[in-house]
Design a protein that fits this description.
Shape: elongated
Strand order of the largest sheet: 1-4
Structural class: mainly alpha
Strand content: 5-15%
Mean pLDDT: 82
Number of domains: 1
Helix content: 40-55%
Number of helices: 6
Largest sheet: 2 strands, antiparallel
Low-confidence stretches: 135-140, 144-155
Number of strands: 4
Oligomer: single chain
Distance between the termini: 59 Å
Length: 162
């Protein structure tokens, strides 16, 4: 006699990925199609391993959010053109609309710059630290050096109860 069939449908990996993407798109995220250099892609992958994140999308999101919190699109200065030997790869991370708008604002500042070039300018600003700088600044102001959290006095409590 065989096992009774489960009433819950078994989903394929493709269907699970489609569900996940549908949820992201419904939440207001979009694809940012861009060509980045192989070196930048290697740095993204290294940061992905370093921060133990599951996808490149998470790294791209953190990079843009961290730079967006501490600078304006008008602050960027165009770098020298890439070498003709530079190889590019297409990536298409799914990120929030406000982050895409920031990358497009940086791109609009420079004539004929691609989205990948604008992202590489942003990525060059971040270095290794993916923390959002405004949050760090707020914490530093809220908790001055040497400040301690209050400690409860437990010296007069009974051993058998509260």
């Amino acid at each position: 006699m065989g096992r009774p069939r489960s009433k819950t449908p078994v989903l394929t990996v493709k269907e699970l990925v489609q569900q996940q993407r549908s949820g992201l798109y419904a939440a207001g995220n979009r694809n940012l199609n861009m060509a980045v250099s192989v070196q930048t892609l290697a740095q993204i992958d290294r940061l992905k391993r370093l921060y133990r994140l599951r996808s490149r999308d998470a790294i791209v999101t953190r990079v843009i959010a961290a730079v967006m919190s501490s600078s304006e699109p008008d602050r960027f200065i165009e770098r020298a053109a890439a070498s003709p030997d530079t190889h590019y790869r297409w990536i298409s991370p799914i990120i929030g609309l406000e982050l895409i708008d920031f990358v497009k604002a940086v791109q609009a500042r420079f004539r004929s710059m691609s989205l990948g070039g604008a992202f590489e300018l942003i990525f060059a600003e971040i270095g290794e630290d993916l923390a959002i700088r405004e949050a760090q600044l707020t914490l530093a102001i809220a908790e001055p050096c040497g400040a301690r959290a209050p400690v409860a006095d437990v010296s007069n409590r009974r051993k058998d109860g509260p």
